[in-house]
Design a protein that fits this description.
Elements: H1 6-14, H2 16-58, E1 66-72, H3 88-99, H4 108-112, H5 119-129, E2 137-143, H6 146-152, H7 169-180, E3 184-185, H8 191-194, H9 207-238, H10 243-255, H11 260-274, H12 282-307, H13 310-318, H14 323-351, H15 355-359, H16 380-388, H17 394-424
Antiparallel strand pairs: 1-2, 1-3
């Protein structure tokens, strides 16, 4: 050890050397603060770029171009014996020809496809539901097909050379004539939430994916919540502390870090391969996500149980309560806010998982919302995957809109978790 003389000791604490050390420490603290601020700026910048890019692309999907058209339901087009088998497509064509007469360079077929493919089915349903409409004119507001919707939203550049443009000059002229007649509107696109998937972008919606995600999370919660809490209570309060419990604890922590695709492969082999459960069903998806969510719930529950002060247990035991009464009447209720927070965060993570659902077939083209958890369905992440893989231009904005909806649900679930934690948390 180096001896410090009184002179050197005084210089160490009050002299020039001490001042240099203080400046060095302050400089290091400034570097650390600057690094932290820079990291926050980079993180928020990347988040802003992500959200702004999604909003700039996806907000267009929340509106849809419609046209108000007069459809003549003439006797010669109607099959009196079977209304559903009438020539509805010809009636749509007749209506468009009457609405836009004498458009040069555009034939009757091109006029008819200005409207979405479901226009004929909307007209059919109206007349079938009210046969007295035969021989009259039915006025309906129907969505325009995707190219004209893109044109109305400014996503098709009119100045581009005609050979490189999706719509020709004559078709744009026909659309402008329809706009000039006052028949075109652009209301909020409720079909994005009320309709299921479709191969036509203007008709595609998220209803099937929303219902499928609801059923999937419902099954996941119904299984993972009670099993996770039961396992955590046993391991934390009742299980003997030995090598077996240590091995179980290590494996639970390891399972929490296993990639989600592994759980998808497990579900594909066990639930579908061995048990023969239906593919694309939210019930199987819920089972798969329950396996993935269980470790998170167990770890969060054990942490919440550990946070309860030992004095609570000792006081309950001191007044004659049994071990079971101590756990279920005192410890578990006090730990419930932390348990619920961990559960909601685990479910939010499960809501955004895609890989395990793809492996069990929840990326099928389903045109109707599921009625039960055993019907074929998609989920929000897999619906985003399907739309992102579609070549149609209209699905680009719908993909971003679906991502915004998914992010909204994730933010809402995390906000609920934060609210529960702040409202019911107790400080000891």
């Amino acid at each position: 050890m180096t001896d410090i003389t009184p002179e050197s000791s005084s210089d160490h604490w009050t002299g020039a050397r001490a001042a240099a050390n203080v400046k060095k420490r302050h400089r290091s603290e400034l570097y650390l603060q600057a690094g932290g601020i820079a990291a926050l700026v980079i993180a928020f910048t990347m988040l802003f770029i992500l959200v702004s890019s999604l909003v700039s692309t996806g907000w267009q999907a929340f509106t849809q171009t419609h046209a108000k058209i007069d459809f003549p339901v003439t006797q010669e087009r109607v099959n009196a014996g079977n209304l559903e088998r009438s020539n509805w497509r010809a009636m749509v064509q007749d209506a468009m020809v009457a609405t836009l007469p004498d458009i040069p360079g555009v034939d009757e077929r091109q006029l008819a496809i200005m409207l979405s493919n479901n226009a004929q089915f909307r007209l059919r349903d109206e007349v079938v539901a009210n046969p007295s409409l035969v021989g009259t004119t039915v006025v309906l507001t129907v969505p325009l097909s995707d190219p004209y919707d893109q044109l109305n939203k400014g996503l098709i550049d009119r100045t581009t050379d005609e050979e490189f443009r999706r719509l020709k000059d004559a078709e744009i002229t026909a659309f402008d004539a329809l706009v000039s007649s006052g028949r075109v509107s652009k209301p909020f696109n409720w079909a994005l939430f009320n309709s299921a998937d479709s191969r036509f972008p203007e008709l595609a919606g998220l209803r099937g994916a929303l219902v499928g995600s609801f059923y999937t999370l419902l099954v996941c919660f119904a299984l993972a919540f009670p099993i996770g809490i039961g396992a955590a209570v046993y391991l934390e309060e009742f299980a003997p502390k030995n090598k077996v419990s240590d091995i179980i604890e290590i494996n639970i922590n390891n399972l929490a870090a296993v990639p989600s695709v592994v759980f998808g492969l497990l579900a594909l082999a066990v639930f579908i391969g061995w048990f023969g459960m239906p593919r694309s069903a939210p019930f199987v998806g819920g089972l798969t996500l329950a396996l993935m969510t269980l470790p998170t719930i167990i770890i969060a529950t054990r942490a919440a149980l550990k946070a309860v002060p030992p004095s609570i247990r000792e006081a309950a035991l001191g007044v004659g309560a049994s071990k079971q009464q101590v756990v279920f009447h005192h410890v578990l209720p006090l730990a419930m806010p932390g348990i619920m927070t961990g559960t909601i965060i685990g479910l939010a993570q499960a809501l955004g998982e895609t890989a395990p659902l793809l492996l069990i077939g929840m990326n099928a083209f389903i045109t109707a919302a599921p009625g039960t958890p055993f019907d074929s369905a998609t989920a929000l992440p897999t619906q985003i995957f399907i739309w992102a893989d579609s070549p149609e231009r209209g699905f680009v904005s719908r993909t971003s809109a679906a991502i915004l909806v998914l992010l909204g649900f994730l933010v809402l679930m995390n906000a609920v978790a934060i609210f529960l934690r702040s409202k019911f948390e107790r400080k000891w």
